[in-house]
Design goal:
The chain is mainly α and 173 residues long. It folds into two domains: 2-104, Methane Monooxygenase Hydroxylase, Chain G, domain 1 (Up-down Bundle); 121-166, no CATH class. The chain contains five helices and two strands. A two-stranded antiparallel sheet has the order 1-2. Helix 2 packs antiparallel against helix 4 (59-119). The protein is rod-shaped, with a radius of gyration of 37 Å.
Length: 173
């Protein structure tokens, strides 16, 4: 059933395609039924001598059925539109959850990647080279970039030392 496919645990492209196909089928049916409403109304209202009175007695019932079918088609089209919106909303929610997981993993790997990027530099130690955070630094620009890239680690070290002092884990006098 379509409702089970929409609200199932996995989302399938075929469900969306089925909804669109059903909407197209209803549109074709609407094109066929809509002119019948006017036609049946004329047959009831006009006086034609070619149609016998015993047959003419059935025209109001046919007219009622045509109107009912026309209204049912409109109702089904609205239901399919709502089903399509629900399907697309659930797909969007599922994609957002996947993106949250990916962003979480990216955040987890960001710090080791930064450390590997900083410590993985092939720096040559020249005579008179300056040292920044225990690593050789070339010119002033490179030293400045290295200092900025190490700021988060220095802040983390400071925060951990403050926490350990607050818990009684600091140095004793």
């Amino acid at each position: 059933m379509l409702e089970g496919d929409i609200f199932g645990k996995t989302f399938d492209r075929n469900t969306t395609e089925r909804i669109y196909q059903l909407k197209r089928d209803l549109l074709e049916m609407k094109r066929a039924v809509a002119p019948l409403v006017d036609m049946c109304n004329r047959l009831i209202r006009t006086d034609m001598t070619l149609i016998p009175d015993d047959v003419r007695a059935y025209f109001p019932d046919v007219y009622d059925h045509v109107i009912w079918i026309n209204e049912m088609i409109d109702t089904l089209r609205e239901l399919l539109t709502t089903a399509l919106e629900a399907n697309l909303s659930l797909i969007s929610v599922s994609q957002n959850e996947a993106m949250k997981r990916l962003a979480g993993w990216a955040a987890i790997f960001a710090v080791p990647t930064m450390i590997a990027g900083v410590s993985g530099h092939e720096l040559q130690v020249h005579a008179g080279a300056r040292m920044v955070a225990g690593l050789p630094a070339g010119d002033g620009d490179h030293a400045r970039r290295l200092r900025v890239s190490l700021l988060p680690l220095q802040a983390l070290r400071l925060a951990l030392s403050v926490l350990s002092v607050g818990r009684g884990g600091g140095s004793r006098r």
